[in-house]
Structures are given as structure tokens and as C-alpha cells.
């Protein structure tokens, strides 16, 4: 039987033998099924499915009917406000906790459900935490090989595979003999991913793996990690607070709110076709303006705006800052006064006030930094691109 993957948070580093700190002698042929995932040889990931998951802590119901399907080989980002239950769901998927109701399946294996709770080490799910949690007394090689059976650990084939896994996450082979304290935070996270991939898990769970890194390291580490996941076709759930990260690296994004998945969609679907204004505001800066909806066009204080979907009646329209173009005064649909200009390096965010017969409307615009007007300046405003109108039931829009 194929052994399960290592789940580092559940392992006891002290159980490891110091002799494994450097590559040991070859002990025989690799045990079938223990070779790591390497490009071109890895099996496709498995569908990960959570259905009708419920979890309460005492009187507090955290998850209340969560349905989430992560397609095989897909990276789904799980986002939601702090305390919405993202880590709780990840821990249930990993098997660290037990759902009160519902089922979890990986491929066709039921790992949690009524009368069934497969332990973490037998789920074939890898878990990478914010800190990576490498074993400090083991070398990079020792960490990566940790999940393999003792006998197979230093076979010629597995020693080669350790090197290939390191290469897969973008680190040179000479790092194999380094200890975790000799690595940067980003390098440690890459090794943690290599370790999680080594037992060829059916899925990987990443719990804010980049959040402790500075922006530059974060970008390069994110790139290396997502490239490795794509190369191995590993089904992945990524919990992140960073909406740009979620939209840029995930193929699907699931938004958790009020104990359930409110919307699960492609990044563009979530960004451009949010189910309500709260989802819209969660995934990006947003202005909501009043509008008269006339089929494919909405009349707004900023002029006529094409709509994604035909709608009629009185409503509101979501506008992203990048849809609001700044022109010379008089050259746009209307003029506005700049309230604040927030310089952000490459671009800036403008808070604008548009005077209308029915009162002032405040709008946010994004503008290239070299065109950034100053606070108090008058500018022209024009809206481009299709917009989404609020659903009639979305009465919370402000
Ligand atoms: N073991 C526990 N016992 C009691 N309550 C818990 C436990 N674990 C989590 N909670 C509560 O469940 C809720 C969801 O917590 P969880 O950590 O899953 O949220 P999260 O979305 O991951 O938050 P964050 O983004 O801040 O990490 C919180 O209110 C938290 O206090």
C-alpha cells in the first residue's frame, strides 16, 4: 500500500534520527509508490470535495453548510474576512479536526463523513503553514525526505528525486546540506513545499504560506511555488488574506462568508461578476453609484455606462477604480474635484467628488502616477468598460 504523505504539523521532529541530517548510504531500491512528484512523471491531482460541512465550537457555528469542490490539478484560493472560518475548513480537510456534519472526499475516497474520520497521515494531503515549520535539526535533504519510509529514504532514486524536488521549487542542489536557519524565509517556504510534495500527495493545503515574507521575496516565492504546483498538477487549496495574490495565482477563488461559500468562481468572474456588493468590495476597490438601468446601458452621474447584463429599473452600478478615466476638465462625461490623491508608486488612487443635481457622488479612480493630479484640482471623468449593476436584493450597497 502506498504510504500517506507527511503532514508536518502533526509530526514530532524529535522522532527523527540525527544520522539523516546528511544524505546517507543507499539502502536499496525505492519502495514502490514513494517516489516524489517530479515534472512529467507526477499523476494528475484528485478532485477534493467538501459537501454540507458544518463545524461549531461550543455555541459558535463557524461553518454551516460549506460546499467546495476543487477540481483535479486546480489551485483554488479560499478567501474571506478574518474569523470567517478559512483555517477551520483547512484543518477539517487535512483531518486535524472532525466536522460535525458533512463529507470530505479526495478523488473517490471518503475521508470524513458519518462514522468515518481518516487520520491526517493517511489522507494523502500535504499541509504547508505560514512558517513552513521545517525541522530545525534536519538539513534541507532530510526535511524533504522526511515523509518517505526509512528504507527508501536514501535510495539512489530518492536521492535524485530530492534534488529534482529542490529544483522544482527553484533552489539549487547545493542547498541540500543546508539547515533551515541557513535559508531565507522564502527559501524555507519552498523547501516546505518540496517536503509536502515529496510523498506525491493527492492534494496540498497552503495556509497563508507567503504572509510572513516581505513583498519582494513574496513575489518570487509565490512564483516558484505556483510553478511547482502547476508542474506537478497538484490539487491545491490556498488560504490567503491577499486578494491580489488570490486573483493572480488561483484558477478558482472561493469566498467564505457567514459559514458558507458565498461565491466560487474564476478570478475574473469574481472580480467582474460578483454576486453582491460585499463580494465586489472584498475582491477590489469599488465605487457604487446610483443608476437608471436601461437594458444594456446605465445612466449614472458619470455618464452612460455599458452594462454586462441587460437590466431595467432604478439600481446601482459597481465601478472599479481602473474604469474611471481622468481627462482634462470638460473632456470627459462630467467634471469632478480631487479630494485626495494617494500616490502608490506606479499609480495612485484618487478620491473624486462629482456634483449632481441630486447631490454629491464620491468616486474612486486609479491613475498612472505620472498623471496624478493634486488634491483640489478639477478634472474630467469618463467611465470605460462594462459595469455590473447591483441585484435588486442587494440592498446593502452604500
Ligand atoms: N479550537 C477552537 N476553539 C474555539 N473556537 C475556535 C477554534 N478555532 C477557531 N475558532 C473560532 O472560529 C472562528 C473561525 O476561526 P478561523 O481561524 O477558522 O478563521 P479564519 O478565517 O482562518 O481567520 P483568520 O483569517 O484571522 O486567520 C473564529 O471566531 C475563531 O475564534
Automatic annotation (TrEMBL):
The keyword Cell membrane applies. GO terms for molecular function: ABC-type ferric iron transporter activity; ABC-type quaternary ammonium compound transporting activity; ATP binding; ATP hydrolysis activity. Residues 1-11 have a biased composition (Pro residues). Residues 22-38 have a biased composition (Low complexity). Residues 1-38 are annotated as: Disordered. It holds the Pfam family TOBE_2. Signal peptide: none annotated. Keywords: ATP-binding, Cell membrane, Ion transport, Iron, Iron transport, Membrane, Nucleotide-binding, Transport. SMART domains: AAA (SM00382). Gene3D superfamilies: P-loop containing nucleotide triphosphate hydrolases. GO terms for cellular component: ATP-binding cassette (ABC) transporter complex. The keyword Iron applies. Residues 48-283 form the ABC transporter domain. Its EC number is 7.6.2.9. This is ABC-type quaternary amine transporter. It comes from Parafrankia irregularis.
